[in-house]
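[User] I have long wanted to understand how a fold can be written as tokens. Those tokens are not coordinates but codes from a learned vocabulary of shapes. Could you go through the record with me and say what the backbone is doing? Thank you; the sequence and its tokens follow:
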Amino acid sequence: MSASARRHTLTAASASGLHRLSYLEWGDPANPRVLVCVHGLTRCARDFDPLAAALADHYRVVCPDMPGRGESSWLKNPMEYGQPTYVNDAVTLVARLGVDAVDWVGTSMGGLLGMALASLEGNPIRRMVVNEAGPLVAAAALERIGTYVGKAPELPSIEVAERYIRTISAPFGPHTDAEWRFLTEHVVRQKPDGTYRVHYDPALAVPFNAAAPHKDIDLWPVWEQVRCPTLVIRGELSDLLSRETAERMKASGPRAQVIEIPGVGHAPTLMQPDQIAMVRNFLLAG
């Protein structure tokens, strides 16, 4: 982790009690311009290190580990891994930051969370980047994700761990060896016996698989309530966000801008200079 990032924690609540929410903060802590970046289903705050470093001169960048991931607590009741808890945590986080408005970048689950929050009256989101998420979530993608959530094998070495991450994350698209090692190292932990495990609560799979067999998830009524300027990033090869859905997002709700990234599926990592530039240009235009 860069020396310019600071880790903090706060206490949040769900129906079954209190939990610890950990987050990273980049840039000037007194900067009133705040960017919140939220990761995908089984990822963590560290995914945004390159983007945060690139934007820290303009923003106070805040990247939370959502419950059950990274340095945040695991929830007592697995069925609370879902939007009600995540929206509550996001509101608690913004209150802790002491600002009235934030910009938002959300990848996959983080994009769906941004949409949910931005649809509420009086919400704090000023501008939003939705990375590989939309108001129609394809059942095929849910089935693919369900093949690995909560089912990680024992990983005898960091090299084997990297091969596993490369396999399940192949839709991320081309990355350098160094980028794949980075994407691996901060989502695994070494156990006392020297082996590695994927570091998230395997109980994330409980609510995810409770809906099996999966059907498309229709969130168009939520999208229609979003009013903030929005950029949608779609991977050309995505199995979660169809081109048809992205086109409809341009004509409804906030009438989003849409950028499609060639050669990438679900989901762009926003690590590479061209992807960072897309986000930066949209956010700073506002």
User: Anything to note?
Assistant: Residues 6-137+218-285 form a domain with the Rossmann fold fold (CATH 3.40.50.1820). The longest strand covers residues 17-26. Residues 32 and 98 are 9 Å apart (CA to CA). The mean pLDDT is 95.
